[in-house]
Amino acid sequence: MIVKRKKRREKNSTLNELWHIISHDKDPDALYSHSLIILSKALGKIEGAVFTWEPHENVLRCQKVMRSNVLQDGEEVLVVTRESPLWGLCSGITDLVIDRQNQSSICVALRTEGEFLGMIRITRLTGHRFSRINLSQIRLFCSELTVAMKNLKIFMQNERHVRQLRASFEISSNIVKSIHLDELLRLIVKSIVTHMGFDRVRLYLVDRKRELLKGEVAYDLRGNIMSLDKEQYPLKSKVHPLVDHVLGEGENLVQKSFHDVVVFVPLQIKDIVVGLMVVDNILSQQKISQDEMHTIKSFAGQIAMAVENARLFEKIEELSITDSLTGLYVIRHFKERLETEVYRSKRYGTSLALFLIDIDNFKTINDTYGHPVGDLVLQTIANKVKGILRQTDFACRYGGDEFMTCLLNLNAKDSLQLGKRLLDAVENSGPFLEEGALSIGISVGIALFPENAEEIDDVIEKADQALYEAKKRGKNQICGWWEIQEQK
Questions:
Q1: CB 167 within 8 A of CB 196
Q2: Which CATH class is domain 176-320?
Q3: How many other C-beta atoms are found inside a 10 Å radius of the C-beta of residue 298?
Q4: Cα separation of 110 and 120, whole Å?
Q5: Residues 121-139: pLDDT tens digits?
Q6: What span, in angstroms and rounded, lies between the C-alpha atoms of 459 and 448?
Q7: Over 50: is that where the pLDDT of 3 sits?
Q8: pTM (whole model) above 0.70
Q9: Helical packing angle, 290-321 and 132-175, nearest 10°
């Protein structure tokens, strides 16, 4: 009898002796696991479970359970209503609920300073009831566990706050790293996923001129970066949920379906929305916290301003490399690109054709009709030049009334055919005046690299010679430099 009492005292004292173990746990899983292990050592054969309280949903969610000395992740969810026996625990009426049908099963509140954090449910598998000493020891242990849970919650909040501050600094730094729009958008999505751990971030920008919401780029936790250029939606209400967020519409079915795992963040400067950022945890189903939402939204203004600055830089850069009247490259930028293409041609053994184009009788047009009409003629022919260019080709305004094009991988025969197409396109395309449609024409000289010359300046000179020959033939003609050689 004395031995049994001694063993009972040893079990009861175990709770007091081991509670300090849980005070050192730095993550919830370890804390709940150690708690159930300690209870098992103190009380013998039990089934125990730790539940945490989710006040927004009025549910107790099982985090950890012990059955037959085996720890498992909890799956049980208890919805608590006013009619529920557990309501007293949640509302603070009582700290202990004993199952009336099964006197060996109890639920003990985890409460500190009036805040209800959850409960522990313990069932003795031996069928014995809990003694008054047992209940006193369990309550004491639960109060210590609650303090540990509260401290851990504060510790995790502080850790999360530090991570968010660090993430905010890194993301803010990356936002201002680039003034090139494509690079900037890639840096933004990658930084947010990397430093905040979301499953995916997508960026969409508003194209006011075309009245579209255009997909730009997405980045996910696996390191995949994806173009969203195929996603384009008219800026009209009820066309697409993404557009509705840009237009400031109310909740939609998509937002309701993915509540807490998707956040839509309009990117705006004052009252002007320039785009939309979509952050989601759809794959992991990890809820996005209010703190995380606040952090994400704090970047919106910075991102919007960075996007507008990048767009402004692109416009300035575009103006510096293109002719304001025709929209074609200026000669300086054309030659820079030409040098790059010549390098590639030499390295890979490919060829290119240079077209030098001159407007026939342009001085007469200016003198007769004035410079505004002359400008219309320049714009008309520039548009026809653009019409023959493929995606890899490029052109410039070479002089007052001259244009030059670089067309890749064209032989002599194909060059002449393309030049003929250009002549046909220009014919009868002159602006319509009071006197009627203005007749315009062009002369074209062509030289090939490396067939006609191995230095680019020599190719340009030969194209100029071919243009002079086309003029001599009566204008509105096309001539390849090799044709001059054949005549000699």
A1: yes
A2: alpha beta
A3: 14
A4: 7
A5: 999 888 788 888 888 888 9
A6: 7
A7: no
A8: no
A9: 10
3-state secondary structure of 430: coil
Could you tell me if residue 57 is left (phi over 0), alpha (psi between -120 and 50 degrees) or otherwise beta? alpha
Confirm if 70 and 188 have CB atoms less than 8 A apart: no
Both structure tokens of 476: 């509105």
Q: Is the pLDDT of residue 1 over 50?
A: no
Tell me what pLDDT residue 17 has: 53
CA distances from 314 to 190, 231, 325, 396, 420 (A): 22, 22, 18, 19, 35
Check: CATH 3.30.70.270 for 331-487?
Answer: yes
User: How far, in Å, CA of 141 to CA of 143, rounded?
Assistant: 5
DSSP string, 210-229: TTEEEEEEEEETTS-EEE-T
Q: Do domains 2-156 and 176-320 have the same CATH topology?
A: yes
What are phi and psi for residue 227, nearest 5 degrees? Answer: -85, 140
Q: Where are the domains of the chain?
A: 2-156, 176-320, 331-487
User: Cβ distance 11 to 27 under 8 Å?
Assistant: no
CATH 3.20.20.140 fits domain 2-156: no
What integer pLDDT is reported at residue 233 of this predicted model?
92
Please tell me the least confidently modeled range out of 183-187, 275-279, 457-461: 183-187
Q: State how far the Cα of 135 lies from the Cα of 33, in Å rounded to an integer.
A: 20
What are the DSSP E strand ranges found in 208-350? 212-220, 225-227, 232-234, 262-269, 272-280
Most confident region among 19-28, 78-87, 128-137, 312-321 by mean pLDDT = 78-87
* Cα→Cα distances 55→63, 64, 167, 290, 369, Å: 16, 19, 29, 15, 81
DSSP summary character for residue 350: -
Measure the CA–CA gap between 258 and 79, rounded to whole angstroms. Answer: 21
Mean pLDDT over each residue of the chain, to the nearest integer: 85
Cα–Cα distance, 176 to 275 (Å, whole number): 17
